[in-house]
Amino acid sequence: MGYHVIDTDDVEPDPDRPCTRRSLSDLGNLSNMAINRYTAAPGEELPLAYHYHDEQEEAFYVLSGTLHVKTPEGTLEAGPDHLVTIEPDSPQFAYNPEDADDPVDVIAVGAPAVEGEVHAYEP
Q1: Is 85 in contact with 68 (CB distance < 8 Å)?
Q2: If you write DSSP's letter for every residue of 100-114 in order, what string do you get?
Q3: What's phi and psi for 63, nearest 5 deg?
Q4: For residue 45, which phi and psi values (nearest 5 degrees)?
């Protein structure tokens, strides 16, 4: 059996990301899901590109601020204690707009944790 308590503030941010991303899956020894904590200042983006996944489902739980998610149908907005869910094959681009008053802090969960199945989306 294995149990882990992780203080997400103690996790070193991943380098070369458009915002602060802390990868939590490895520390918890999780192999079937990806868990990340994102903190994006006004004008920062969460992903590296507008994209979709073949198999992975994603959920973004907003801790503070307002998360914006661009989709082909329009932009979704979610504030604190709201959850955005994204099904496979659904293009998305999460960000904090430049005119936002505050950073957005989000916990993102994706399952299954699949390497290399992220595809750029060109509208």
Answers
A1: no
A2: -SS-EEEEEEEES--
A3: -85, -45
A4: -110, 150
Angle at 8 between CA 5 and CA 12, to 5 degrees: 120
Dist CA 42 CA 108 (whole Å): 18
Whether the full predicted model's pTM is greater than 0.90, yes or no, is yes
pLDDT digits (tens, 9 = 90+) for 62-112: 999 999 999 999 999 999 999 999 999 999 999 999 999 999 999 999 999
pLDDT of residue 2: 84
User: Cis omega before residue 112 (within 30°)?
Assistant: yes
Cα(29)–Cα(38) distance, rounded to whole angstroms?
A: 19
Q: Any idea where the domains of the chain sit in the sequence?
A: 8-120
Determine the CATH number of domain 8-120.
2.60.120.10
* Cα-only R_g, the chain: 14
